[in-house]
Amino acid sequence: MSDERFDVLDESGQKLGKVLHRDEVHRRGLWHKSAHVWIINSKQELLLQKRAPQKETSPNMWDISVAGHVPAGETPISAAIREAQEELGLHLEDKDFRHLFTVTQEKKVRNDYINREFNDVYLVSGDFNPSTFLLQEEEVSEVKYIDYRKLESLLAAKYPDYLDHPDEFRELFKYLHKKYRN
């Protein structure tokens, strides 16, 4: 059983004053927070991580650059900084992050695991060399850059190796198309 504890939220994202273990939060399908970080380079390529084969949910799927739950008492930006360090060995600071939006996600993984999250979505711009990353083996098996327009096409075609977050991707691609005017 995980020792992680989360602040339980109501349906509008406000803390209820309860702190529960991760397993109980997921078993009961209670709302909680996560931080999602997208890394984009100067070639307009997003960094993707391939989830490790032993991950409880969506193993071996290409996913968000960096993501993780926000433990009780931690801020989303602190969680984002910590997760970038843990998953990729990447040292980032508050100033490196641009908060884009917050999106809800509800997914029933199985009968005893319901994920209801408020995901704070951030963008980090930089030309990071993946060969210098220190990947957290329990979480990440590999990383790659992909042109964001190509990723958008793969997701539209329901390409099976890519984890889809429809609401998040819709907002992310809308932001990137506006930013890059294409």
UniProtKB/TrEMBL annotation:
Coiled coil: none annotated. GO terms for biological process: isopentenyl diphosphate biosynthetic process. SUPFAM superfamilies: Nudix. InterPro entries: NUDIX_hydrolase-like_dom_sf (IPR015797), NUDIX_hydrolase_CS (IPR020084), NUDIX_hydrolase_dom (IPR000086). Residues 30-170 form the Nudix hydrolase domain. Signal peptide: none annotated. GO terms for cellular component: cytoplasm. Keywords: Hydrolase. One of its GO terms (molecular function) is hydrolase activity. This is Nudix hydrolase domain-containing protein. It comes from Candidatus Berkelbacteria bacterium RIFCSPLOWO2_01_FULL_50_28.
